[in-house]
DNA sequence: GATATTTCTGCACCTGGTATACATGTAGTC
DNA sequence: GACTACATGTATACCAGGTGCAGAAATATC
């Protein structure tokens, strides 16, 4: 049962995290643009060529941590209890994530996460790279809506785009509040309130805007 | 009344378009990644340094054409007739743009535009760069909603994100149909229908999804 | 322990983008 | 029209991210 991954696989995993951690430490210390990949490779005791074997681009040294979340919305929709609307499942999941201080909600004030967000938001190249995850998340969510809700392709894509966009705004809003110095606990009520209003807006539409 | 822009200014404008056109011609011929900026500079009879004085990055040689549209949604909202809801103004504007075959709707099948879109969608670096315009458009629209509709900041940002996201999906959908070979005229009815449904969804919300 | 297969490395190389220092052309002034 | 002031363009060298390649080192398999 306990299939050991094998020495080779374990070593690969260790090298990977060693590279990533060396990179992030340097980035947090001096800023993304002021650290060269050559330095990172040296710090991780690895050749530059090897670094690029693990991470296809410099930006990925940071944003690979968000890779799991790119399929999260789709998973939540697929795994929702029968009889639950996708929107309700996503709202419940987001509120729960706020409670857990899930970094993906922006509401986590541990220094490591906070500083990482600060760097991320201050570095256009990283924001651009995150945009790709956003696109992938949209596509995945649209598929999930197509399959499990009885949505036809276009409405599914539209709904997915709206949902992901809103999630992004909420996360950014929290991250900005925390990078401005607020604590996660202090921010939590406002974050909940904002999320509730956002999902209500999604459910009822923009018809009230005048 | 006819204030001549001056020789200097005219020359600048000519160099600028010469560079951009040389670039796009080469890109369309061989693909974005297979053309180096050195080649473009040579083709435009300009030094590489000068090229970068006009366009800060290679991608901008293409996407600078979309720069105007980055403020379009905000302008539409600000210029709407009194008593009109922002959503209605934006819907009317989009439908009108479809009728005009505005390239920004994706519904323009002139070879130049079609090939440009094809290249754009096939080149991740360009899509990423367009993402910045999307972000800027969101921010601008949110401001406009804040000022002219009586929306508070967060709802305005949420609504703007949703609106821009939907616009993007509709445009992509049209562009994909056209790059697949359909003519703009043939696509037009479906494009209108899609837009109507999309704006209806925005207005009434996702509450129906189950 | 021998061998096949990954993985890692060093090196040369390409390309996007910038710094510097200098040449050229344009605009206004006398 | 010559003179100055300034904006613009050029050549060159340079840096950093990223790739191709050939071979060395480590791991897995027998």
Automatic annotation (TrEMBL), chains A, B:
One of its GO terms (molecular function) is DNA-binding transcription factor activity. Residues 36-55 bind DNA. Keywords: DNA-binding, Transcription, Transcription regulation. Residues 13-73 form the HTH tetR-type domain. One of its GO terms (biological process) is negative regulation of DNA-templated transcription. It holds the Pfam family TetR_N. InterPro entries: DNA-bd_HTH_TetR-type_CS, Homeodomain-like_sf, HTH-type_TetR-like_transc_reg, HTH_TetR. This is TetR family transcriptional regulator.
């Amino acid at each position: 049962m306990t299939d050991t991954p094998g020495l080779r696989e374990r070593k690969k995993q260790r090298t990977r995290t060693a590279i990533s951690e060396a990179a992030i430490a340097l980035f947090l210390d001096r800023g993304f643009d002021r650290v060269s990949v050559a330095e990172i490779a040296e710090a991780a005791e690895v050749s530059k060529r090897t670094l690029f074997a693990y991470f296809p681009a410099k930006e990925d040294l940071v944003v690979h941590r968000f890779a799991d979340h790119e399929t999260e919305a789709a998973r939540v929709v697929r795994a929702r209890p029968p009889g639950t609307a996708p929107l309700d499942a996503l709202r419940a999941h987001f509120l729960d994530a706020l409670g857990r201080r899930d970094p993906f909600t922006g509401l986590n004030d541990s220094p490591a996460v906070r500083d990482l967000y600060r760097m991320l938001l201050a570095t256009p190249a990283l924001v651009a790279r995150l945009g790709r995850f956003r696109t992938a998340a949209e596509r995945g969510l649209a598929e999930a809506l197509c399959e499990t809700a009885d949505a036809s392709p276009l409405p599914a894509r539209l709904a997915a785009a709206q949902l992901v966009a809103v999630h992004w705004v909420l996360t950014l809003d929290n991250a900005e509040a925390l990078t401005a110095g607020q604590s996660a606990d202090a921010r939590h009520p406002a974050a909940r309130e904002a999320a509730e209003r956002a999902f209500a807006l999604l459910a009822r539409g923009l018809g009230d805007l005048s």
